Automatic annotation (TrEMBL):
Keyword Ubl conjugation on entry: no
Biased composition (Pro residues): 92-101
Gene Ontology molecular function terms on file: DNA binding
Native source species: Catenuloplanes indicus
Protein name: DNA-binding protein YbaB
Amino acid sequence: MDTGAMVERARRVREAVATAAVEVTSADHEVTVVAGPNGVVRDLRLTSRAFRLTGAELGELVVRTIAAAHARMAVELRETLTDLVGERGPGVPDPLAPLPSPAAMRAEMDGPR
């Protein structure tokens, strides 16, 4: 692949990640969440139905709806990136996998050589 094509592919990946968003609404339409990559909540909307819930019920519903949005965001972003850069081959790390902890990275670096 030539340098120009690599630069264009990188630009398209950056753009896809920057603009990625999914919207998820709870089953009874009390809560709507718009989520982006990396755990970002871009918008949270509550309808008047939400205020019929107790505080604990509403909190739980918000957390569940955010979790559902993040799960869908991960699937959609992985599909988009696969379309842009192709399938990962053996030994190629998942770009959406969580980063290892600093302690795990240190242990790996200090391990047998």
